[in-house]
Amino acid sequence: MQSHLTQATLLRGVLAGAAVLVCGSLTAMGADVLRTIDGDRLTVTVTGSSRDGLTIEEREGGERLVSTAEIVDVQFEGEPQELRTARNLLARGRAADALTELEAIDTDSANNLTDLMKAEQAYIKAAANAEAALLDPGNTDRLREAGREVLAFATAFPQSFRYFRTRELVGDLLAASGDTAKASEFYEQLAAGPPAMKIRAATARGRMLLGAGDHAGAVAAFEQAEATEATDAASLEQKRLASLGKARGLGLQGKGAEAIDVVNKLLNGANPEDAELLGPAYLALGDAHQAAGRLQDAAISYLTVDLVYNTNPAAHAEALAKLADVWEAMGQPERSREARGTLKATYPDTSWARSGS
Known about the structure:
This protein is an alpha+beta fold. It has a domain at 279-357: Alpha Horseshoe (Serine Threonine Protein Phosphatase 5, Tetratricopeptide repeat). It is built from 17 helices and five strands. A five-stranded antiparallel beta sheet has the order 4-3-2-1-5. Strand 1 and strand 2 form a beta hairpin. Helix 2 packs antiparallel against helix 3, helix 8 packs antiparallel against helix 9 (195-211) and helix 9 runs antiparallel to helix 10 (215-227). The N and C termini lie far apart (88 Å).
């Protein structure tokens, strides 16, 4: 009898322990997750959203605000897998695939979205359409339609933590369509955010000026971004991107040696797995080598983007187009045709593929 009681007691203990483990796992699985620019992965409950960021409640420590400049990724408890996948695809520059994933959300899931999830769904759709339009800058109607969709999102969700990103997106769309004055107004709204956003706004103005052919003005804007007094992780990341822009501006001014020096300094301190930085960096290095008349070095830089750091579609498409031109200039027409063929097969809707340059 005692043996049976002992076994029953042990069984109850095992079941109770299993229940605790299951409940603990469900609690961990059921929480919202934030990833920050410092590399932290926070398991929290998101209690609110504002233009400044997300308010979170941690298991220990109560509520606090995570600045929008710090947020790299967010996942909400119970969100459809398609929404999560679409967000990840957008972050990787795969705008068309993100839109396809959103369309796969079934009616029941769509009807059960929380307000935060609805805002994310609307943002991802608007941002993906904007990113796709920016790959096709010659299509003014598409750029304007994408801009209207982004503005509609910001009107429908005025307290979204994505607000400052919408200012940048609309500015970029306006700049691509040639309306630089209106674009500057939106970049000013972006600059009203945290310090990292101020740097981002100066960098965006630099990109706009590069596109308009004002290379000296662009370099000045990028240098303004670099000189902004801010040392938080988000600001330092933006300063690195500003330095890349400056290198491209210097190269376009014919200052290839200076441009190469700027990019090499960035590469020396970069994380070799940071493809989002290194793709544009090697593209800028290729431009700098080309400006200095070093065609073989330019080809190697563009090939590095093509073969290694090819997850940024805009940088990859541009690198392929320029690689084709460099191969042609080096008397290697077969390689030129191969690069152009890859460009047209991979990014057929971009102006790079259609222009043949």
